[in-house]
Design brief:
Blueprint lengths: L7 E5 L4 E5 L3 E6 L7 E3 L10 E6 L3 E8 L6 E7 L2 E8 L6 E21 L2 H4 L4 E6 L2 E6 L2 E6 L5 E3 L2 E9 L3 E10 L10 H16 L9 H13 L1 E2 L4 E2 L22 E2 H13 L3 H15 L9 E2 L10 E2 L13 E2 L10 H15 L8 H15 L18 H20 L4 H21 L1 E2 L4 E2 L14 H4 L8 H14 E2 L2 E2 L17 E2 H13 L3 H12 L11 E3 L4 E3 L5 H18 L23
Antiparallel strand pairs: 1-2, 2-3, 3-4, 3-5, 5-9, 6-7, 7-8, 8-9, 9-14, 9-15, 10-11, 11-12, 12-15, 13-14, 16-17, 18-19, 20-21, 22-23, 24-25, 26-27, 27-28
Helix pairs in contact: 3-14, 4-5, 4-6, 4-14, 6-8, 8-9, 12-13, 12-14, 13-14
The structure holds the ligand OC[C@H]1O[C@H](O[C@H]2O[C@H](CO)[C@@H](O)[C@H](O)[C@H]2O)[C@H](O)[C@@H](O)[C@@H]1O.
The site of the ligand OC[C@H]1O[C@H](O[C@H]2O[C@H](CO)[C@@H](O)[C@H](O)[C@H]2O)[C@H](O)[C@@H](O)[C@@H]1O has 14 residues, from helix 4.
């Protein structure tokens, strides 16, 4: 049976990812890329859609798990009536697509069962399984081959490969599963213990550079490792989450594929990396962006594939029943062709911060900006699908216009700093002022005394938190204060924020979903800016308490059922942890020890455009 989302831990090699349950079952795995068809898809279906389980035979008295500190090496410890043993799971770094599982006896003896069910093409294709030698078998379907190497006797029955074995104190048994092209000769085995050492070194070298964030350091470090694991190393692209179709409403149809690179999610990830001093990762993503939008920057998409692919057609997989019957399971994402105005402001902020952080300007930045800004001069007037990617009618979203203001405001400031043409400065400033005035007139509802989701609407939207966070208006502006009050009244559920009011059909989907975690982190940031430090800290601590036992968060949380919802783990939520932790930590430092105000995490940034 599928486990609650929070029972899973992430394994990754900066190319792809797997989810392993607290019972030792890998129920989701795509080889060789994040967006490749899964060979284990039982997370979204049944055992027979593929999984690899290694767990004690018989009754487990207790179990616990943790990542080895600063790494993505997971240890699950099982205690049975006969002893205690550990399962050590990891994906070796490097260009081999492989999972290693080491079973290690700790105390006494433990009998284990292994059950491997390979189903390529998202749980559909039963492979042709052949034994190469008593400890090696291959599973082939079409272009894919998996090679299992097991130190124990293996049997095949009913399209399952099984093994029963025992470990005693100090004994170690290593299993590996490697993906390769089925047309190539079987590759040499990897050395599992050597791979464990190099993989641990890779993660430690990365995470040891994480700065001290006081009491929040462990949570920030885990979020940083998670964001790194969501990065596709060969290109620098960053996926929004490791999964597709984990539901935002159990049994509902709000199920989307997040294994792509959103400009919004990825630029926010870049800012989180840079806020922690990780400029190499930031530069890799900035270069990915410059390549992805090259050629037709005026046709910039809101998301791309891992290598900048432009077409991500959305389709459904009818053979998968969906997570707890949440259908359909979707692959691809139709939001890729939407117009979402906010991305221009987000990318502009990120580029500016990259430059201020000392990253050399990309040779194409100025040229790209020269094409995008004139495009935006017309485009900001159009309705769009907005930050939440609605599937209903396009609207004049207040948040989208605020982000258009961000783009022009920063363009004016930078052109001024660079002593650029007065004409250009005046033009950017005039457009920024025009947008500002329009938002304050049309995005604001006099009767309600607050900003609203879209022009003429009476609905609330948590994206309006970006009004103070981007510097569009000061946090103590009475209109901002009343907007946050209204948000607390209309969007708060058990202290956490919904992203908007889904019951009014704005998004073209059946209503109902969980609270959207990154919005609650933004609220904590806004409280901090408003001087409500105690509220900021209380909300942040509440949010941290929602992390699962290995420090991971999904996109959403359902407070009544007390369970995570949506794709998992999600970059947005972990970005929220990093930025809110930094903001709270800095606010607690004595004034003279604080970084220059320019280092604040949520302040407006300067746009990187050619003057
Ligand atoms: O709500 C409908 C939309 O939901 C998804 O979008 C959400 O996830 C994105 C990736 O994290 C994020 O950038 C966006 O702000 C979220 O609303 C889905 O990807 C869309 O296809 C869908 O229309």
């Amino acid at each position: 049976m599928t486990q609650p989302i929070e029972n899973y831990a992430l394994l990754g090699n900066c190319r792809t990812a797997a989810l392993v349950s607290n019972e030792g079952s890998i129920d989701w795995l795509c080889f060789p890329r994040f967006d490749s068809p899964a060979c284990f898809a039982s997370l979204l279906g049944e055992v027979d859609n593929g999984r690899w389980k290694i767990s004690p035979h018989g009754k487990v008295l207790s179990s616990s798990r943790a990542y080895r500190d600063g790494t993505m090496v997971l240890e699950t410890t099982f205690t049975t009536e006969t002893g205690t043993a550990k399962l050590i799971d990891f994906m070796p770094q490097g260009d081999r697509s492989c999972i290693v599982r080491i079973v290690e006896g700790v105390d006494g003896g433990v009998v284990f069962d292994m059950d491997l069910v390979v189903r390529f093409d998202y749980g559909r294709s039963v492979p042709w399984v052949e034994r190469v030698d008593p400890h090696t078998l291959t599973a082939v379907a079409g272009p894919d081959m998996l090679v299992l190497r097991a130190p124990t006797p293996i049997k095949g029955r009913d399209h399952h490969t099984t093994s029963r074995f025992s470990v005693t104190t100090g004994e170690r048994l290593a299993f590996s599963l490697t993906h390769q092209s089925s047309s190539k000769p079987i590759a040499e085995p990897i050395d599992p213990y050597g791979a464990l050492t190099t993989t641990e070194y890779f993660w430690l070298e990365f995470s040891d550079r994480c700065p001290d964030v006081g009491e929040w350091t462990p949570a920030v470090k885990r979020s940083l490792i998670t964001l790194k694991a969501l990065t596709y190393q060969p290109t620098g692209g960053i996926v929004a989450a490791a999964t597709t179709s984990l539901p935002e409403h159990v049994g509902g149809e709000r199920n989307w594929d997040y294994r792509y690179c959103w400009l919004r999610d990825a630029t926010m990830t870049l800012l989180a990396f840079m806020n922690l001093g990780y400029f190499e990762e930031a530069q890799a993503w900035r270069n990915w962006l410059a390549r992805s939008v090259a050629g037709n920057p005026e046709q910039m998409q809101i998301m791309y594939g891992l290598a900048g692919e432009r077409r991500l057609p959305e389709y459904e997989l009818p053979w998968l029943k969906g997570y707890e019957n949440s259908k359909p399971v979707r692959i691809g994402n139709a939001a890729a062709t939407q117009f979402q105005l906010d991305i221009y402001g987000e990318v502009a902020d990120a580029m500016a911060q990259a430059r201020r952080g000392g990253l050399p300007t990309h040779r194409r930045s100025a040229a790209i900006a020269e094409v995008i800004m004139p495009f935006l001069e017309q485009a900001w007037r159009k309705p769009d699908e907005g930050i939440w990617e609605i599937r209903g009618q396009a609207l004049h979203f207040t948040h989208s216009k605020v982000m258009a203001w961000v783009a022009f405001d920063r363009a004016a400031i930078l052109t001024e700093t660079n002593k650029g043409s007065r004409e250009k400065i005046a033009r950017y400033r005039r457009i920024a002022d025009e947008i500002h005035a329009e938002v304050c007139a049309q995005g604001y509802n006099e009767e309600m005394g607050c900003f609203v989701q879209s022009y003429g609407s009476t609905l609330m939207d948590a994206a309006l938190l970006q009004i103070p966070l981007t510097g569009f208006l000061p946090p103590d502006d009475p209109r901002v204060v009343r907007t946050i009050d209204m948000m607390e009244k209309r969007l708060m559920r058990d202290g956490l924020l919904l992203r908007y009011e889904t019951q009014h059909g704005v998004d073209g989907l059946p209503p109902g979903e969980g609270t959207f975690l990154v919005c609650s982190f933004w609220l904590a940031d806004a409280y901090g800016l408003m001087g409500r430090q105690a509220d900021a800290r209380a909300l942040f601590e509440r949010l941290l308490g929602l992390c699962n036992d290995v420090g991971l968060l999904a996109e959403q949380y359902e407070p009544h059922a007390k369970r995570m919802l949506g794709n998992f783990p999600q970059a947005f939520s972990h970005i929220g942890i990093i930025n809110a932790a930094l903001n709270i930590h800095r606010s607690q430092q004595p004034a003279q020890q604080r970084a220059h105000p320019d280092a604040d995490v949520v302040e407006p940034q300067v746009l990187d455009v050619g003057a």
